[in-house]
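>> Question from a student workshop board

For tomorrow's exercise we were told to take the sequence and the ligand below, predict the bound structure, and bring the output to class. My setup keeps failing. Could a helper post the expected result so I can at least see what it should look like? The ligand is manganese (II) ion.
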Amino acid sequence: MSDLCDFPQLLAGLGVKPTALRLAVLEVLGASSKALRAQEILEAIRSKRRVNKVTVYRILDGFTRRGILRRLAIEDRVSHYELACEHHPPHPHFQCHNCGQVQCLEPAPLERMWRDLKGPLGNRADRIDIRVEGVCHKCREIS
Amino acid sequence: MSDLCDFPQLLAGLGVKPTALRLAVLEVLGASSKALRAQEILEAIRSKRRVNKVTVYRILDGFTRRGILRRLAIEDRVSHYELACEHHPPHPHFQCHNCGQVQCLEPAPLERMWRDLKGPLGNRADRIDIRVEGVCHKCREIS
DNA sequence: AAATGAAAATCAACTTAGTTGCAAATATCA
DNA sequence: TGATATTTGCAACTAAGTTGATTTTCATTT
Ligand SMILES: [Mn+2]
Ligand SMILES: [Mn+2]
Ligand SMILES: [Zn+2]
Ligand SMILES: [Zn+2]
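>> Workshop helper replied:
Here is what the output should look like for this input. Compare the format with yours to find the bug.
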């Protein structure tokens, strides 16, 4: 999705060393049009080289803490990850409850929701996640 | 939250036997102003009687399938449950990333989101979940 | 009241996704 | 080169939930 980002430079800007594995994680996510599970990222990297899952989990975690990735709590019991670079502003997601895929939707409606939800609370809102669940285009055709 | 519902009657209407445990699960959720984890429901029941966790998980699962409860994928790796009766229409949720509590927000803005998100897809949207993340009122005071 | 049968609850074992602690391998710097 | 710090790997563990088989409960039928 984002071959627009120069990953080595992105990491350099944050003082993070661009190791082969860190770049591999970013490239897998950059090449995907949808948010991926840690498992899927792991397998994608493994199709090219050998990696330990712990390393991948640690990279995903570190990137999420630094704001390089967003971790989505979109599905029970499995996190999904996506790039959080400027080409990927926060946006709603769609998950098909038949095939499980997580699509990215257009960011547009987010701004308005912010205003509606932020107001009425003594809480401080830092982030808003919108998840649409249903049956995707492909799965509808089949059945 | 919903002492408004007559649980035995609710179950009867669906042809589900109102066993002691099923009612206990509904009463715990009915007495709570926030969505609860399976663990919390289990502990609440255990403070009164002895139960096996499998039974509680199966009850939660059955209720969710029948639409008596909603299962919320609001936090990584832990489901939250809430009553889905007419006094609890679907609504956005707020989770504090300090204390982890999941508050229920007002249902109002949901209708509008539907229209915005349903349209642009070949997908069929069945449900929309909105999750606001931040720091809750209580946790803000403390720090 | 005893026998039958179905639904509900329990138990032990298992699974999945992720985490922890520590050791080995690399990279960086003096 | 050696000393230090960072990254990666390995094995063991955890938390949340699931599975399959067994036992209990409870309403019917005899
Ligand atoms: Mn996305
Ligand atoms: Mn709620
Ligand atoms: Zn699908
Ligand atoms: Zn809080």
